[in-house]
Structure formats: C-alpha cells, structure tokens
Amino acid sequence: MSHQLTAPHPKFAVVGHPNKGKSSIVASLAQDDTVQISDTPGTTIKSRSFPLRMDGEIIYELFDTPGFQRARSVLAWLEKHDVPAHKRAEAVEAFINTHRENERFSDEIELLTPIMEGAGIIYVVDGSKPYGEEYEAEMEILRWTGQPSMALINHIGENDYSQEWRRALEQYFRIVREYDPMETDPQQQVLLLESMAQLDESWRVPLKHSIVLFEGRRDQKLEQSAKTIAHLVQSMLSHLEQFRFSGEDVEDTDRQKLLKNYQQHLRALEQKSQKFIEQLWSHQHLQKEQESLLFEGVDLFSKESASIFGLSRQEMVVTGVTGGAVTGAGIDLLFAGHTLLLGGAIGAVVGGVGAYFGFDELSGIKVLGKTLGKRYLEMGPMENRNFPYILLGRSLYHLHKVAARSHAKRGAVTLTMDETFKEKWLDDQSRKSLEKFHKRFRSGDEISSGEIQAYEALVLACLKKIV
Ligand SMILES: Nc1nc2c(ncn2[C@@H]2O[C@H](COP(=O)(O)OP(=O)(O)OP(=O)(O)O)[C@@H](O)[C@H]2O)c(=O)[nH]1
Ligand SMILES: [Mg+2]
How far apart are CA 421 and CA 248, in angstroms? Predict the structure, then answer.
C-alpha cells in the first residue's frame, strides 16, 4: 500500500546509565557538535532530538536522553503489575502516564517517552568499567517496552571488560557492537548503520539509503573542500593590493602600510576559507566558541610556517622553481623524528633560522598613476615561489584535522604533527603538476574555468592522500 512510501523515518533513542557516552554517540552519529557532553554525570536532563538531514530530507533521528536514575524502583512498579508478556508495553505506558508529574522519575519518563513513541533502542555501556548487576534493571525495563534494541560497548577508560559485558548484554540484546564516538572512520559509521538497519524490517530500506547518501556526502565534502582550497590558492597568488599615498615621494611608512594591508588581506582569505571548511564538515561549534582550530601563533608569513609546510631547497631545485623570490624556501625541514605541538614548541625548534618571508620576498611594489593626480602603490601578484606550497600545506593540514575531528570532541584542540605530513600529500610528480598552475596564477593573466577545474582535481588528489 502507498502508506509504505510515507512511512516515518527511523528513530533511535540512545539510552543507558549516566555518564557512559550516550551524548557522545549521538554527536558522532548525528554529526552534530552542539550536543551537550561533559564528564559530570547527569549532564543530559531532557530528551532532545537530533535529526540527520541530507538534502533537506530527514534520514534518521536520534534522541539523546538522560541516564537511568531509579531503574530498580521503576522495574519494581512494573513487576507489581504482573501482566502477561503481550501487555508489558502497556504497563510501561501506564507507568509514564501515572508518573508524568513526579520529579523522582523525570529521567526515566524522559528516556522512555521517545521509545514508547516508536524509537528503537541503542543501549550504551562503558566497557572500561566492570559489569554489575545494577544494569540488569535497566535492561529489563527496556525489554518491557517491546521496542527493537541493540547494545553498544563504548570505551571511556583504558581497562577492558568487554568480554564480560558482551556475555551479559547478549542475554538481553540480539545485536551487541563496539563503537568509539571519538573515531571518525566512516567505515565504523557504516557498520553501525547496517546493524541499526537489522532492528526493524521497515527501517532496512531507509537506513541502506542513508548509507549510500552518507558515503556520497563524504565525497561531496571532499570535492567541495578541494574547490575551496584551490580557489584560495588562486585568489591569494593573484591578489593585487593597492594603497593610495598622498605625499610627493613614496615614504617607507607607505610601503610598510601596503605590506601590512597585503598580508592582512591574505590572512583574512585563509581564515574565511578555514571557517567555510569547518562549516562544511559540520564543525560550527569551533566557530561559536571563537576557538581557532589551527595555527595559533603560527602566522601565515612566519618562518615556522615556512619551515613546516614549505618546500626544502632541494625540493625547490627538483621542481624547477628556483629563481624569483625564493628566500622563504631556504629552510630545510629542521625537525625530524619527533612530534611538534603547533603554537608552542615550534618556535623553540626552528628558532635561530634566519631565512623567512620578508618584505620584498612576497612581491615587488609598483607605483601606479604617476602622471595623474592620484598615485597608488601596488603589491602583488605573489612572487614567492614557496608560498603556494606553504598555503596548500596549511590548508590540507587544517582540512585533515577538521575531517578527523569527532563531533563528540569538546574542549581545547591539541594539535600535534610530525615531519611526515608533507610527504603524505606531496611527491615529486604532484609538485611538478601543481607548479604549472602556480606559475599561471602568479602571472596575473586571466585564468580559465577549465584551468581552475584541472587545478581543483589536482588538489583533490592531494587531499585524498591525507583523509
Ligand atoms: N576517551 C573517551 N572519552 C569518552 C568516550 N565517550 C565518552 N567520553 C567522555 O565521557 C564523558 C561522558 O560523556 P557523555 O557523552 O556526556 O555521557 P552521557 O552518557 O551522555 O552522560 P549523561 O548525559 O550525564 O548521562 C565525557 O567527558 C566524554 O568526553 C570515549 O569513547 N572515549
Ligand atoms: Mg548525555
């Protein structure tokens, strides 16, 4: 019948004991970084729905719920009613109706309500803590609801009690899986969606569909990211900054002002591009918190940035990009075999290196409009040959961090990187291919849309090596 077509989308209530990672799992599955997560038990006090939308359509809906507080009392109430198995769900309904106004059971009412309204159950436990009988009342109550259910073992701490958990959970749940909400491996997500699809016949089709969309959306996000980065490189390299000066002669302060404006403009372009990519990967929260994900203290034009992301002298020679303003390239990678913390340790590691971007090394300065009343100084396009690689390295590094950041992560972003990052995305061949475009971008000539597309494809290929 046609009502099949309008069947409601699958819904899942993520339930369990307080502080076991329920909200973290919701954040990871709904790819939503606004879910409230903290190490204080009882953080979630209201059930909240997180629909996963793709192209305006709700694919599935997850309910974040408070943890059980009085499971034993609830179960005692239910058991007092001593109903046959086919009436147990009605007893749960009766419990909700009877205690709706009762503060004592507000957490249980909150978590049972979406289940009784048709949500499947995802029961979450912490496999790093031993199993205990106190969980049995919770699992028993869930059984009384009669709704399809599965269990997820999360690991918050180091210890591993998953074997005993598995044995206990399998008594109550047909499907028991491990899941790590801090992990962004798309394969893990797909495997879980496949398990969820097994819970109810009518969810199979929509959830299979969601897997296809999910994978397609990841490709879209990668392509969109490559486009954004390609556009960033092109617009930075070709940028012309003008500065109107008033006096007869060009003063040193005018030149400095122009350079400052030029650099500011490029920094702003990079930031805008990063925000766009964060949004694309659903990390709006990073912006709301005014938390800059990256490059705290590692300025676009700093020697640190050049030494981490730029080409070494040897790479410049191999790529044939010597000549022009290459000073920024004069730094070979100085760190080897250790992990760096961006923003902190880098200064210490590369301190003492003299060569880095200076005034003239970005671009020459022209004086325009000599004969007219208005006179301008102009800077650009970018002449520094190493700059596009530094910019690409920074952009890819940022993307790699954003794409790998779980939506369940909260708090400060610790950024560590090692000297192999550049090797991961850049080899001799891709460097040579990229260089042809960089040369075009800094020529100041009109760039055709075909060229831009070809460059985007190159960036996408580099980007796929690191995500
Ligand atoms: N390292 C690690 N920490 C986790 C993991 N899952 C959850 N946590 C942390 O455990 C704490 C509790 O996570 P929440 O997701 O808020 O747990 P909850 O079950 O929703 O808690 P309540 O809402 O209080 O019932 C938070 O500090 C999380 O960051 C995990 O897989 N690994
Ligand atoms: Mg919670």
Answer: 49
